[in-house]
Design brief:
The complex is a heterodimer. By secondary structure, chain A is mainly alpha-helical. Chain A has helices spanning 5-18, 20-42, 44-62, 80-100, 111-124, 128-160, 163-193, 199-216. Chain A has a domain at 93-216. Chain B is an alpha+beta fold. The chains are: A mainly alpha, B alpha+beta. At the A-B interface, α1, α2, α3, α4 and α6 of A face α1, α2, α6 and β6 of B.
Chain lengths: 218, 305
């Protein structure tokens, strides 16, 4: 190992860099998963409202005929909260499958080359439906960065009782995630956009998630 | 072209990237249902015990878990003391001890929910959550706290839920009799044993039905089983339901006050006669409404559903 501190840091960085192929994809996937949860959680009450409206509509339809009337009790009064949260959970897991899990295939490149390739891909990808996944990935990654930064601040604040240090750590984490990880997540999603399938179905899941992600920013 | 200083910085970036990725994995591991799923599968594969919460408990402030309700109320609950009774029930303490402490903390923090959080998670955590949260509601306060606070937040949510239930009134005059109690019973129309999720209160058509607490109309609709049905959300995981009404006097999304007339009782839906089916749900689980009353209305044979 080299002698002075600067060289030692460079030596450690070089060795850590060799493991980027494993920790970067995992980190990107986790960042987007955290963002998807922050988004799904913040609209939990609205999901419950939608479930109530849909349930009321179906109950009115089932009530039209005596032989379908028992179906009113399929999602009864007591199951609705559970059902609404199950819908939120399925929505979140579907979003994870669509935009977080594919990030595990991220291959690292030089950042400059990545930006150049990203611009080219953006110019070539004309269909709005193809752009839904990269846009959703970027917004959800930003929501994830906000959530991770908040968690870091909360943990440090309550563990060390030093408010300014916790705020500084939050700001540093947020900037780091927004500069180093969120663009990579969007880039990887853009790379996959041209070959992605089930685009309309994905849009149904991801467009509301994009709105929810924006609502969770803070 | 890169300057030598920039090159120096970028050479060290992998350390920062590793740190950021580790933070993302830590947050995802403890803060998301996906993380809980991975933890549970891991625990199952290695035959260990997972500390992950149930997947649905990752939404809201732990209000999915219904609280343990004390068997008997020690006496009438003054409305202003309802939260203290809720906290005392969760802490297994006397409301007389908890009440003054809770009131003093609420005055210091300016919020009842923050005072409850302070009681279970400590005042510093509550102050921090108040500074960081969007609103002083427990759900929002809970979102501002780190993962290690999840257990105490869950207990605070249960206390808030019980407090909310203790503060509820009664939808009909006290003299109205119960014609069918809460619990498993022989269904009067279907003949088979079925779980009755509320109490039936025998009354005449057109009797005013009052909101048992302030809240928002979550549902005002009609179907063949429940008739004209009204669901009120009182917040803190407390929801009340009123079925078989003759007329609903409020609309979806409308805010109602405690004691406001929200419906007229009737015999709509699947019933044997005019009555009100009244139900309380805590965290989505039906509980016996009589558990939150000191004076139990008399029971008598009569119309039911």
């Amino acid at each position: 190992m080299p002698g002075n501190v600067a060289e030692r840091v460079a030596w450690v960085a070089e060795r850590v860099g060799r493991a980027r192929w494993i920790f970067l994809p995992l980190g990107l996937c986790a960042l987007v998963a955290v963002g998807a949860h922050a988004a799904a959680d913040v609209v939990g009450d609205r999901v419950l409202w939608v479930v109530d409206r849909v349930d009321a509509l179906f109950d009115a339809v089932w009530s039209s005929w005596s032989f379908t009337a028992p179906l009113v009790e399929v999602v009864g009064l007591t199951q609705r909260t559970w059902f609404a949260r199950a819908v939120a959970l399925l929505w979140e897991l579907a979003a994870d499958a669509l935009i977080a899990v594919p990030l595990l295939g991220y291959e690292q490149r030089d950042p400059a080359a990545e930006w150049k390739l990203g611009r080219e891909l953006l110019q070539r990808t004309r269909s709005p439906l193809r752009l839904v996944r990269p846009a959703a990935t970027l917004l959800v990654a930003i929501a994830g960065a906000c959530s991770v930064a908040r968690t870091v601040q909360g943990s440090l604040h309550l563990a060390l009782h030093v408010g300014w240090l916790a705020s500084l750590a939050r700001a540093g984490t947020l900037v780091g995630l927004l500069v180093l990880l969120a663009p990579r997540a969007a880039f990887r999603s853009l790379e996959l956009a041209r070959t992605s399938r089930y685009r309309a179905a994905a849009a149904v899941v991801l467009v509301p998630l994009m709105i929810a992600a924006v609502l969770s920013f803070r | 072209m890169k300057s030598p200083e920039l090159a120096q910085v970028t050479r060290r970036l992998p350390i920062l990237e590793l740190l950021l990725c580790a933070l993302c994995l830590w947050a995802g591991w403890y803060h998301t249902p996906a993380g809980a799923l991975v933890r549970s599968v891991g625990a199952w594969l290695f035959g260990t015990r997972s500390t992950a919460r149930p997947l649905l408990a990752y939404f809201g402030a732990g209000t999915l878990v219904p609280p343990r309700i004390p068997a008997m109320l020690p006496g009438p609950v003054p409305p202003a003391q309802a939260l203290a009774y809720g906290a005392a029930a969760v802490l297994d303490a006397s409301p007389l001890e908890v009440g003054p402490q809770l009131r003093a903390t609420a005055q210091r923090l300016g919020s009842d929910d923050a005072a409850l959080l302070a009681m279970f998670c400590g005042e510093e955590a509550a102050r921090y959550a108040l500074d960081e949260a969007r609103s002083p509601a427990l759900d929002d306060l809970a979102r501002a706290l780190p993962p290690r606070s999840e257990a105490c937040v869950g207990r605070a949510a249960q206390a808030a839920m019980l407090g909310g239930a203790y503060a509820l009134g009664w939808p009909l005059p006290e003299s109205v009799r119960i014609t069918s109690p809460f619990g498993v019973r022989e269904h009067p129309l279907l003949g088979a044993p079925r779980f009755h999720a509320g109490v039936d209160l025998g009354t005449v058509v057109g009797t005013p039905v009052r909101a048992v607490g302030a809240g928002v109309v979550r549902r005002a609709s009609s179907d063949r089983i429940n008739g004209r049905i009204l669901v009120l959300d009182h917040g803190r995981g407390v929801v009340t339901t009123y079925c078989h009404n003759d007329a609903l006097l409020v609309r979806d999304g409308q805010r109602v006050d405690k004691g406001q007339i929200v419906a007229r009782s009737g015999s709509s839906g699947l019933t044997t006669g005019p009555h009100l089916h009244y139900q309380i749900d805590l965290a989505g689980e039906p509980v016996d409404p009589l558990r939150f009353r000191v004076q139990h209305p008399r029971t008598a044979a009569g119309p039911s559903d």
